[in-house]
């Protein structure tokens, strides 16, 4: 999996930089070998690492892969309850990792393993219950990284820049293992600030919408990315105004992609493509998708198959079985539409929170959110459907805005979209709560009091 560490791409002195600390491939490999030796000596069956933005985290994950021991990255800000649950559920143990300790010996061969054996166990966010362990094999990871390298023309000539958490697919699998697979130089900025991105001098940048929106608000930082080759956004929908602001300042149209912890990245725009904002491209090689829509509906649940899918939820065979249809397609739980002519996918939102059935219409919350964000006074927007005796569900918009009334925003949406898609209620909030990857936590909005229009 880790092509760069085999010497194929030479030994760059500045191969990996994390939060200002730099290491060569040789130094990283030495530290990872020491981790592998420690794991072998201790007999740890599953290895948990507190995934801080550090060279130690990179060495720990690589060392576990070398040793053939499944690795569980722990969120560094996890509270005692969450951390305890993950450790108990996975049976993982922690070991101290010191990047200065290095071995020049390859680890002893582990028990016979295949590419389908567990490589990483990543835990879901737990928004619908206790976090579940998603088991990913090296076969799934390599299939995904190779497909993305083709789609994004990602090679050893690139310098990848990002500042994303190292306990998620985006930051760890794409942002670290992807660099070690392609041989591209990696610069992890520690924190994903506009200033850090602007100063990094990369050719390829990864970010979530929160990162890109902050960069868009700093035109000098966005302009500094003009020398890059490709900007990529994922993990949540990118607001159209942010897309346009980044394009205006940098000259780049951000490429959006779609994926989940359980599937890795399955749909993406391509390098050199020209897709409009709000679309995530077409399936990667080997991935097949379909839309399970009710008769006459243009949108429905996105379902897919392919080599990048997870091996299952750890210790939860019932949950694993429930994630698939009877004929073997993975149910993403996301609502999407696919262009009839070009096959381009557009993600509307989650079936549980973003599919609104109001007055007989099926409405995607994301479309309304984008319309609201086009208003110059609106900084953030989240739209939900709440029970309504007359409509079934009424559309409620939570917005962060100043100098505008709810009635004005309702009229603004009605003028841009169909009238039946207008919010029936606008609630003003100080901020839209988000998780570590920038995804709105809409259930929290419904639990907290807020100002009505």
From TrEMBL:
Pfam family membership, one: AMP-binding_C
Superkingdom per UniProt: Bacteria
Domain AMP-binding enzyme C-terminal residue range list: 367-439
Every AMP-dependent synthetase/ligase domain range: 14-95, 107-314
InterPro entries in alphabetical order: AMP-bd_C, AMP-bd_C_sf, AMP-binding, AMP-binding_CS, AMP-dep_synth/lig_dom, ANL_N_sf
Cited NCBIfam families: PRK07787.1
Protein family membership: Belongs to the ATP-dependent AMP-binding enzyme family.
Protein name in UniProt: Acyl-CoA synthetase
Organism of derivation: Streptomyces amritsarensis
């Amino acid at each position: 999996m880790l092509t760069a560490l085999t010497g194929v791409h030479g030994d760059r002195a500045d191969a990996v930089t994390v939060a200002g600390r730099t290491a060569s491939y040789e130094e990283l490999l030495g530290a990872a070998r020491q981790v592998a030796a420690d794991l072998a000596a201790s007999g740890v069956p599953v290895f948990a690492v507190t995934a801080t933005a550090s060279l130690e985290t990179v060495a720990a994950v690589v060392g576990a892969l070398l040793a053939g021991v499944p690795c569980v990255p722990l969120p560094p800000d996890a509270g005692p309850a969450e951390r305890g649950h993950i450790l108990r559920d996975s049976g993982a143990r922690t070991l101290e990792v010191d990047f200065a300790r290095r071995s020049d010996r390859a680890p002893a061969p582990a028990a016979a393993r295949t590419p389908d054996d567990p490589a990483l166990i990543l835990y879901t966010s737990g928004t619908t219950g206790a976090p579940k362990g998603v088991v990913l094999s090296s076969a799934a990871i390599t299939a995904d990284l190779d497909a993305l390298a083709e789609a994004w023309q990602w090679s050893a000539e690139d310098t990848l820049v990002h500042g994303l958490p190292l306990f998620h697919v985006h930051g760890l699998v794409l942002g670290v293992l992807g660099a070690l697979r392609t041989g591209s130089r990696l610069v992890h900025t520690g924190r994903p600030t506009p200033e850090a991105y602007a100063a990094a001098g990369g050719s390829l940048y990864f970010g979530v919408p929160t990162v890109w929106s902050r960069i868009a608000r700093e035109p000098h930082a966005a302009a500094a990315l003009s020398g890059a080759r490709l900007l990529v956004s994922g993990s949540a929908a990118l607001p159209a105004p942010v897309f346009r602001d980044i394009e205006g300042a940098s000259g780049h149209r951000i490429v959006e992609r779609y994926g989940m912890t359980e599937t890795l990245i399955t749909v993406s725009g391509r390098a050199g493509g020209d897709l409009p904002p709000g679309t995530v491209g077409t399936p990667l090689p080997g991935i097949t998708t379909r839309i399970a829509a009710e008769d006459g509906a243009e949108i429905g649940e996105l379902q897919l198959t392919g080599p990048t899918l997870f091996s299952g939820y750890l210790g939860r065979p019932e949950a694993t079985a429930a994630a698939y249809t009877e004929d073997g397609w993975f149910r993403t739980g996301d609502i999407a539409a696919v262009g009839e002519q070009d096959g381009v996918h557009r993600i509307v939102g989650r079936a549980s929170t973003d599919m609104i059935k109001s007055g007989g219409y099926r409405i995607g919350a994301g479309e309304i959110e984008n319309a609201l964000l086009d208003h110059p006074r609106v900084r953030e927007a989240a739209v939900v459907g709440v029970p309504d005796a007359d409509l079934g569900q009424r559309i409620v918009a939570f917005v962060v805005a100043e100098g505008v009334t709810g009635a004005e925003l309702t009229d603004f949406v009605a003028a841009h979209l169909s009238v039946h898609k207008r919010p029936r209620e606008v609630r003003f909030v100080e901020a839209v709560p988000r998780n570590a990857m920038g995804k709105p936590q809409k259930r929290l909005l419904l639990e907290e009091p807020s100002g009505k229009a």
